[in-house]
Design brief:
alpha+beta; nine-stranded mixed β-sheet; about 25% strand; 5 helices
């Protein structure tokens, strides 16, 4: 992962931020950032249903930090099954989201840096495709298009023109059809204490 972050840093030569792997100490700052950037309804989205109770894919939870080390951007990718193929085998993929930048840092290339790092790391780890629900004009510049998801559906309401995918391996989604389902590791549940 360090090589990927170094190459993205070199590309952007950021002077106001650095990219890093998310760590356990970032949880509160990340959640506060998401609340500020995405509003109170963020937990009602179909994508959130796929993330609920799961952990991000290994090595694919990234943050951007300001010079003081505060979290000012976040992106996470989640393991999913993108329907099934012609032989009815699950098509493994990733779901990106949410990508969020502190509003006071918008327009400084942080979102682009996080996207490029996440895509590069997912490809390096051998993943075949990344799906997301988002603004097509923004994500098309990274290679995400609605045509790749035409035979797939999200659980719950979604806008077809905002349901996009990027193939990291050519043809990965060609025969994928059906419902997107979560497949990543579940969050560890705290032990249930029994009453004495």
């Amino acid at each position: 992962m360090a090589a990927v972050l170094d190459s993205v840093r070199a590309f952007f030569a950021p002077s106001t931020f650095t990219l890093d792997l998310e760590n356990a100490g970032d949880v509160v700052a990340r959640e506060n950032l998401l609340d500020r950037a995405m509003g109170p309804d963020r937990r009602k989205k179909s994508s959130e249903k796929l993330r609920q109770g799961r952990v991000p894919s290994d090595g694919l939870a990234l943050v951007a930090r300001d010079r003081a080390g505060h979290v000012i951007g976040t992106v996470r990718l989640w393991n999913i099954e993108a329907g099934v193929d012609r032989e009815t085998r699950p098509v493994e993929a990733l779901l990106l989201g949410p990508l969020a930048i502190d509003p006071s840092y918008e327009g400084k290339g942080i979102g682009s840096a996080l996207m490029r790092a996440a895509i590069m790391e997912a490809k390096k780890r051998g993943h075949g495709a990344i799906l997301l629900v988002g603004d097509a004009p923004y994500y098309e510049r990274f290679g995400f298009f609605a045509s790749k998801t035409r035979h797939l559906v999200m659980p719950g309401p979604f806008q077809r023109d905002r349901f996009l995918a990027l193939e990291l391996k050519d043809g990965w989604l060609d025969s994928a059809a059906g419902m997107i389902v979560a497949s990543g590791r579940k969050l560890a549940q705290p032990p249930i204490s029994k009453a004495a």
